[in-house]
Specification:
This is Folic acid synthesis protein FOL1. It comes from Rhypophila decipiens. The structure is a single chain. By secondary structure, the chain is an alpha/beta fold. Helices cover 35% and strands 17% of the residues. It has helices at 25-38, 76-89, 131-140, 155-161, 215-228, 249-266, 281-290, 307-314, 343-360, 381-388, 390-394, 412-418, 427-440, 450-464; strands spanning 12-20, 42-46, 49-52, 63-72, 104-110, 115-117, 120-122, 170-172, 192-198, 232-236, 273-277, 294-297, 317-321, 368-371, 405-406, 444-447. An eight-stranded parallel sheet has the order 14-13-12-11-10-9-16-15. Strands 1, 2, 3, 4, 5 and 8 form a six-stranded antiparallel sheet that branches. β10 (232-236), α6 (249-266) and β11 (273-277) form a beta-alpha-beta unit. The longest helix is centred in the middle third of the chain and has 18 residues, at 249-266.
C-alpha cells in the first residue's frame, strides 16, 4: 500500500556494564550514560555505583563499577560498535588488557539470546565470577536468569555463590566535584553534619533569625557552622511546618539565591556542600545554577511533577524524603495499619515507589539519597520507632546501598519525650537522636545546633564507625 512507512524497529532490552578507574571515575560513567541517551540507546535504569578492588591486574587504582538497563533498536554487534564508538569519543585510554581505563562499556545481556561471535559473547563470559558485575546486575534484575541454558539459576544465586571477599565493596553517591562521594556501605565512613540555614520568617524553630541579618552577620553565621564541623549547608526559603503559608516562587528564590551566591563567593576556597531545601523544580534549577550541589525535597518529588525530570536533566544529587500529602495535610495521614505492614514497611514501600519514580524520570540511582521524614506524616512515638529501626529501612529490598539523611533536630517529638517546650532548648534530646541516627547508619544528620551536634557526631562516629 502506498503511504505506509516501514514498521519501526523492535525495541530490545540489554544490560551494559559500566566501569572506570582513571580520573573522575563517576564523571566518566555519567558522560557515557548521557552519550548513550543522546544516541538513542535509552538508559532506563541504573544500578548503584560500587567501588571495587582491581581484578586480574592488581597494580592499578580502584574501579568504580555499575550497570544499566537500556532500550535499543540496535542488533548486538551494532550495539557493540556504538558502545565502542562512545568509548573512543570519550578518549578511552586502555594501556593493557584488563588494565586501567577511563571508561569501559561491556554488553552483559541482550534480551534472552545467546551469541558466540569472535567479537562478542552473550551472556558475557565473566559474569559468574565477578562481584563487581554481579552486585550491580543483581540490583537491576535479581530474579532474572543470566544463562538461558540454566533458567533456574538467577542473578542473585550467582552473587550468593561467590566466596566472601576480604574487603566488602561499597556504593558511591557523588555530591559535587569538590567533595568525595558518600560511601554508604563503608563501615568507617564519617557522618556528614548538615547545618540548617533557614531564610524564612516562619520556620518552627528559628524563623526569622537569618532573614534579619546583614550580609556580614550572615557570613559570620556560616563561618561558625563550617568552623564547628559542618560539611553541608541546607538553605531553605519555604517553611514546611504544618499550616505554614506557601510563598510564591519569586519570594522563595529571593530568599535562597542570595545565600547560595554568598557562600560560593565568600567561601570559594572551602569545599562546602550546598543543599537547597525546596519542593519546587523552578527553585531547584535556579539554585543549582547559582551553585547548589544537592536538591533536598521534603515531598520526595511528589508535590511538583516537574521536579524529578528537572533534577534528571541537571544531573544533580537529590534527597527524597518520605512524606504523605502536603505539609498542611501530613499530620492527618499518619496512620500505618498493621494490616498493611505497619510503620516501617509502610515508609519503606512508599520510598521504594519514590525511588522508582525518580528512576523513571531519568535520575541515576547513584544520585539518590533517602530521608525517613521524621515529623512528616509521623506523630510522637512513631518518630522514635523510625530511629529505632533505621537499620531495617537501610536494608529494605529496593533501598539497600542508598545513603540516608536524618533530620530530627529540635522536633516536637523530642519536646514531648523530654518535656522541653521551646524548640531551641531541645539540644540534649536532639543529641540523643543524632547519636541514634549514627548508630542506625545515617550518612548525614541535619541539625540546627551545629557546634554541639558536631561533637555528638564525632563521638558517635568513634564508637560506631571504625
Amino acid at each position: 500500500m502506498s503511504g505506509l512507512g516501514a514498521s519501526p524497529a523492535e525495541k530490545r532490552t540489554a544490560y551494559i556494564a559500566l566501569g572506570s578507574n582513571l580520573g573522575d571515575r563517576i564523571e566518566w560513567i555519567e558522560k557515557a550514560c548521557n552519550e548513550m541517551d543522546a544516541r538513542g540507546i535509552k538508559v532506563k535504569r541504573t544500578s548503584s555505583l560500587w567501588e571495587t578492588e582491581p581484578m586480574y591486574v592488581l597494580d592499578q587504582d580502584r574501579f568504580v563499577n555499575g550497570a544499566c538497563e537500556v532500550e535499543t533498536t540496535l542488533e548486538p554487534l551494532d550495539l557493540l560498535d556504538a558502545l565502542q564508538d562512545i568509548e573512543n569519543s570519550l578518549g578511552r585510554k586502555k594501556i593493557i588488557d584488563k588494565g586501567p581505563r577511563n571508561i569501559d562499556l561491556d554488553i552483559l545481556l541482550y534480551d534472552n539470546i545467546m551469541l558466540n561471535h569472535p567479537r562478542l559473547n552473550i551472556p558475557h563470559i565473566g559474569i559468574p565470577e565477578r562481584e563487581f558485575v554481579l552486585r550491580p546486575l543483581a540490583e537491576l534484575i535479581p530474579d532474572k536468569s543470566i544463562d538461558p541454558r540454566k533458567p533456574w539459576t538467577l542473578t542473585r544465586d550467582y552473587l550468593e555463590a561467590l566466596p566472601p571477599t576480604n574487603s566488602p565493596i561499597t556504593t558511591m553517591t557523588p555530591l559535587s566535584c569538590h567533595h568525595p562521594p558518600i560511601q554508604a556501605l563503608n563501615p568507617s565512613r564519617k557522618t556528614h553534619v548538615m547545618a540548617i540555614l533557614n531564610m524564612t520568617p516562619d520556620s518552627f524553630s528559628d524563623g526569622g533569625i537569618n532573614t534579619t541579618l546583614d550580609e556580614q552577620s550572615l557570613i559570620s553565621t556560616i563561618q561558625s557552622y563550617l568552623a564547628a564541623g559542618a560539611t553541608m549547608i541546607d538553605i531553605g526559603g519555604q517553611s514546611t511546618a504544618p499550616n505554614a503559608p506557601e510563598v510564591t516562587v519569586a519570594e522563595e528564590l529571593s530568599r535562597v539565591l542570595p545565600a547560595i551566591k554568598l557562600i560560593r563567593s565568600h567561601f570559594a576556597e572551602q569545599p562546602v556542600l550546598i543543599s537547597v531545601d525546596t519542593y519546587r523544580a523552578a527553585v531547584a534549577e535556579a539554585a543549582v545554577a547559582a551553585g547548589a550541589d544537592i536538591v533536598n525535597d521534603v515531598s520526595g518529588g511528589s508535590m511538583d511533577p516537574k521536579m524529578l525530570p528537572t533534577v534528571a536533566r541537571l544531573g544533580t544529587t537529590i534527597c527524597l524524603m518520605h512524606m504523605r500529602g502536603t505539609p498542611a495535610t501530613m499530620n492527618s495521614l499518619a496512620e500505618y495499619p498493621a494490616s498493611e505492614g505497619g510503620l516501617i514497611p509502610g515508609i519503606a514501600k512508599e520510598l521504594v515507589a519514590r525511588v522508582a519514580a525518580a528512576e523513571e524520570a531519568g535520575i541515576r540511582r547513584w544520585r539518590i539519597v533517602l530521608d525517613p521524614g521524621l515529623g512528616f506524616a509521623k506523630i510522637g512515638p512513631q518518630n522514635v520507632d523510625v530511629l529505632r529501626h533505621l537499620d531495617e529501612l537501610r536494608n529494605w529490598p529496593g533501598l539497600q546501598g542508598l545513603p540516608w539523611l536524618v533530620g530530627s533536630s529540635r522536633k516536637s517529638f523530642i519536646g514531648r519525650v523530654t518535656g522541653v517546650q521551646l524548640p531551641k532548648e531541645r539540644i540534649w534530646g536532639t543529641a540523643a537522636t543524632v547519636a541514634a541516627a549514627v548508630q542506625g547508619g545515617a550518612d548525614v544528620v541535619r541539625v540546627h545546633d551545629v557546634r554541639e551536634m558536631s561533637q555528638v557526631v564525632a563521638m558517635a562516629d568513634a564508637i560506631w564507625r571504625y
